[in-house]
Design goal:
This protein has one domain (about 5-25, about 35-95). About 10% of the residues lie in helices and about 45% in strands. The chain has two helices and seven strands; from the N terminus they run E-E-H-E-E-H-E-E-E. It has helices at about 30-35, 60-65; strands at about 5-10, 15-20, 40-50, 50-60, 75-80, 80-85, 90-95. The strands form two sheets. A four-stranded antiparallel sheet has the order 2-1-3-4. Strands 5-6-7 form a three-stranded antiparallel sheet, with no helix packed on it. Strand 6 and strand 7 form a beta hairpin. Keywords: Secreted, Self-incompatibility, Signal.
Length: about 100
């Protein structure tokens, strides 16, 4: 069952969507100075089988420091919820599907 991801930037508009299979990734890059100097927000909608969730994938005021020195914000989606990391090694569950 694919994970359908669709993301929108409130500053740049529709980023687009994808149907992801297991171990696929979906990413985008934004200029560091524009992300961390203003207040952009990126919302994503995820749909996996009967589960559906909309969440803020990035909000400058929340993630300015959370994304670490490399300014890398990573999300991992599992059956039990959404996990965040700024290094791709240490994952913290941020919230459940429901």
């Amino acid at each position: 069952m694919p994970l359908v991801v669709w993301c929108v930037s409130y500053n740049a508009g529709d980023i687009g969507g994808r149907a992801l299979q297991e171990r696929d990734d979906y990413s985008w890059t934004v200029e560091n100075n524009s992300i961390f100097s203003s207040s952009p927000r990126f919302d994503c909608t995820m749909k996996w089988d009967a589960k559906r969730k909309r969440f803020e994938a990035f909000r400058a005021s929340r993630d300015r420091y959370r994304c670490g020195a490399r300014r890398q914000c990573l999300w991992l989606v599992k059956e039990d919820g959404f996990y965040f990391s700024n290094d791709g090694v240490n994952w913290i569950k941020d919230f459940p599907w429901m």
